[in-house]
Design a protein that fits this description.
Length: 512
């Protein structure tokens, strides 16, 4: 917590053990420390006037944590994870921070400071981002006569939702454009300009890029391929028609596009598929362009997205087909769902937990213990026995849940059977009739276990079951997280209904 002059950290967010802590853990600790230190300026030196401006505190602290860690550890290449670096030094030092030191600021104060520093009309553009919800999907299509058109809509992860506000954003349009017969001569970065909300046509109408518009430039329609949002300079998801996705396979396969552009294309393809905006077959076909990609970030992204579908079809006849594909790709695509350890190893993990002083190692032990199916009940009972700190019990539950849908079912059943026991452990009794001020915080810890367990579910029946059990329970402190988790279950259920058959057909068609 970023108290001025008295920053407080959890042990696992502050301490590492040289030679034992993983790179991921070292990175997490460095970012957390830098984030809280950044709040001494963004939040403490200058404080938002009211909670509606909380993003000023958190947004810039989040940005500065990457900037600081990149400065201290340049070999970590932090901006590859953050995607895009922006220089705001003069606006911060000479305007916003000095002008509002030891005072309060609102969002418009930032825009005015940036306008003065850049001499650009930023307020109108940024209002489209801070005064409405969500972010856009921009789709590039080719008309039958070869012309290019753009369409902008609000992104929803649930394809059944319709935007009630017909939202539009001011967008900086850039594109990486290929040239030459095979498209291997690119890319060339085209900066088109700002696509303003006032320039947008009515819903579903084409924005003709090849014709003169207020955007002030054109995309070359004769280019072999066009990748929108070049160098990821805009906060939007870029989408394409089927022909556009097909054209982009070559520059990805030939490594013509940058690592960041390739990674974001891959992410976008599967995010759009889950949202029902892109056929799964197109996304899977597009992913084949990365079979020989040397980038760790690409394989991490590919593994994450394909694991989602692996979990989705884990209990269906389609899964063996997916397993054969994964072996051909060196077992990187799907993560191992369950690790079956022998009893002797299980005992060693528990002994190591009890003897270690390193919090990260202890939590890893809990995760490993949770992966042993025959010991699931022993693991959760032991976690509640008092030998595991209350704040770390979640790691034991996470280990069980990560073992697959069977583990999630077991964890959820355990929570239901031990509901009163869990609440007694996390929520202190009232003292002399006065509600303990920590009650709501601890109620959130129970909610974390609930959402962790049910987050793996993917059927409407399970969502209804959860709602029925929690209907008369106190869930106020984590209602938003619970609602989001239940929505995620229903989105996965819809995804399964929509894509399971297509996935089976695509896998069947592959040469195994």
């Amino acid at each position: 917590m970023e108290n001025w002059g008295c920053i407080l950290y959890r042990e696992t967010a502050l301490l590492i053990e040289p030679g034992q802590s993983s790179k991921a853990k070292r990175t997490q600790v460095a970012l957390t420390v830098a984030h809280e230190l950044a709040h001494q300026w963004f939040g403490n030196l200058v404080t938002m006037e009211w909670w509606t401006g909380l993003w000023l505190n958190e947004g810039f602290a989040h940005f500065m944590e990457y900037d600081a860690v990149d400065h201290i550890f340049p070999e970590w290449n932090m901006w590859e994870n953050f995607v895009q670096e922006v220089t705001l030094d003069s606006a911060f030092r000479e305007d916003a921070l000095l002008r509002f030191s030891y005072s309060n600021a609102v969002t418009i104060d930032l825009w005015e400071a940036l306008e003065e520093a850049s001499d650009l009309p930023l307020s109108a553009m940024m209002n489209t981002w801070t005064k409405q919800t969500g972010f856009p999907v921009v789709t590039l299509s080719r008309t039958p006569d070869g012309a290019l058109s753009l369409a902008q809509t609000r992104f929803f992860s649930d394809p059944s939702v319709v935007d009630p506000d017909d939202s539009r954003w001011d967008l900086p349009l850039t594109a990486q454009v290929g040239h030459g017969s095979g498209g291997g001569g690119g890319p060339e970065l085209h900066r088109v300009g700002i696509w303003t909300a006032s320039d947008l046509p009515a819903r579903d109408a084409a924005f003709e890029v090849h014709a003169p518009t207020s955007v002030g430039s054109k995309f070359p329609s004769d280019s072999p391929w066009i990748k929108l949002n070049g160098l990821q300079q805009g906060f939007y998801i870029d989408n394409y028609d089927a022909d556009g996705w097909l054209r982009l396979q070559s520059p990805c396969q030939q490594l013509v596009l940058s690592e960041v552009d390739r990674m974001c294309l891959l992410d976008n393809a599967f995010v759009l598929t889950r949202a029902g905006k892109l056929d799964l077959a197109n996304a899977l076909e597009f992913s084949s362009a990365f079979a020989n990609d040397p980038s760790y970030l690409i394989w991490k992204s590919l593994s994450t997205h394909l694991t989602f579908y692996g979990n989705l079809i884990h209990q269906t006849p389609t899964f063996p087909k997916a397993s054969r594909v994964t072996s051909d790709l060196r077992a990187v695509i799907f993560r191992v769902v369950a690790t079956h350890l022998q009893g002797q190893v299980y005992d060693q993990l528990r002994t190591l937990y009890e003897s270690s002083d390193l919090a990260e190692l202890k939590n890893d032990c809990l995760g490993g213990m949770g992966a042993v199916q025959t010991k699931w009940n022993d693991t959760l009972e032991w976690a509640l026995s008092g030998k595991v700190r209350s704040q770390d019990i979640q790691y034991a539950f996470a280990g069980v849940v990560r073992s697959g849908i069977e583990g999630a079912d077991f964890a959820w059943a355990f929570i239901q059977a031990n509901w009163d026991r869990l609440n007694d452990k996390y929520i202190p009794n009232k003292v002399h009739g006065i509600i303990n001020l920590k009650e709501k915080l601890n109620e959130k810890q129970v909610g974390s276990l609930v959402c962790l367990a049910i987050g793996r579910f993917q059927s409407e029946n399970k969502a209804v079951e959860v709602e029925a059990f929690l209907g008369d329970k106190k869930t106020t402190a984590y209602k938003r997280r619970l609602d989001t988790t239940l929505e995620g279950i229903r989105i996965k259920a819809a995804c399964f209904r929509r894509d399971a058959t297509h996935l089976d057909q695509w896998l069947t068609a592959q040469t195994l």
